[in-house]
Amino acid sequence: MTKISIANLFIAIISLAAVASANAAPPTKTSSSAKGEVLTDAGGMSLYTFDKDSDGKSACNGPCATNWPVLKAGAGDEPSGGYTIITRDDGSKQWAYKGKPLYTFAKDQKAGDVTGDGFLNGAWHLAKP
Q1: Is the pTM of this model over 0.70?
Q2: How far apart (Å, rounded) are the C-alpha atoms in residues 87 and 75?
Q3: Residue 8, in any domain of the structure
């Protein structure tokens, strides 16, 4: 191969990687529930936000995170649209939507359940698109 064709191949690979990142699927889906349109995880479980979280920072750790499992972000995940990835106190990564960290609720038993909405004197809310 010549230097020119190697350079062209390198440029093509970088271009494909950029397109793949730009077209990354969001980490959530939108589903209908008894309380309207909500964000869900890949399995259809409702997602929630917590009033005690600050923009980009989770206040739900320890036993709280047991009851409210986080929507984990993987090492290769790339934020896009209104989605960001935050770093939790334990160093793990969590998805956030419009700056608000996302969680499921351990007591939701099946896709479409929304039993966590309004929990803890209204501090937990369904995540809305």
Answers
A1: yes
A2: 12
A3: no
